[in-house]
Design the sequence.
């Protein structure tokens, strides 16, 4: 069973703080990892992709990948109330599966 | 780029009728499209994967005769919910992948189905 685990939250952070979202996955062969943001009542939106160990930065978002530990994280700097959403971690399963496996999501609440 | 549309955005139908939902990739060719269902406050559930010109692959527990999927072209996939019942009321979301060599998926805005 290929799994992606996330803490469901809610993760509550004050405006301006750094939000840290974590994800672990079970398939050692996975090579592609994604973070999606989903606002309540809306569909998921791709915000970050990462394929190599280390950090990848895009604006206020930084994705971190550690394949040895099977761990992916997303940091959101200078959090804003508009960042309040559910963040879904997704792992691409190759080897015949050819599909994304999603975690259940972490709900982030940024309070003023 | 990478825009996916869905139509309709919401639909109400009577129990026993069928509903068709369209999913289109607007600015790229989608070799593979995916259909998900999401109940309130629950996670995404993959229903089926469709490749252009071939039969869809359904996830375990999803009735292929009830949820008919057609991926007739590289930009269009349709999901038909046949003989809908109130328990089929849900948020249906499609996503598309550009080519076999890519792994990113882009989601449509979703269709909210209510069966009365």
Sequence:
């Amino acid at each position: 069973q290929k799994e992606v685990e996330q803490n469901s939250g809610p993760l509550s952070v004050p405006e301006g703080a750094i939000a840290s979202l974590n994800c672990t996955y079970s398939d050692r062969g996975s090579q592609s990892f994604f973070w999606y943001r989903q606002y309540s009542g809306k569909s998921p939106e791709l915000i970050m992709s990462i394929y190599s160990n280390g950090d990848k930065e895009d604006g206020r978002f930084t994705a971190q990948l550690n394949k040895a530990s099977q761990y992916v994280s997303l940091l959101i700097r200078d959090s804003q109330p508009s960042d309040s959403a559910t963040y879904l971690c997704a792992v691409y399963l190759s080897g015949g599966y050819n599909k994304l496996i999603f975690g259940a999501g972490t709900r982030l609440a940024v309070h003023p | 780029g990478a825009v996916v549309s869905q139509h309709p955005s919401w639909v109400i139908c009577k129990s026993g009728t069928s509903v068709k939902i369209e999913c289109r990739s607007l600015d790229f060719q989608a070799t593979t499209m995916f259909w998900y269902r999401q109940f309130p406050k629950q996670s995404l559930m993959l229903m089926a994967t469709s490749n252009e010109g071939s039969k869809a692959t359904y996830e375990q527990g999803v009735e292929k005769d009830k949820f008919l999927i057609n991926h007739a072209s590289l930009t269009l996939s349709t999901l038909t919910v046949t003989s809908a019942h109130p328990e089929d009321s849900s948020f249906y979301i499609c996503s598309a992948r550009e080519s076999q060599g890519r792994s990113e998926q882009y989601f449509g805005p979703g269709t909210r189905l209510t069966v009365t």
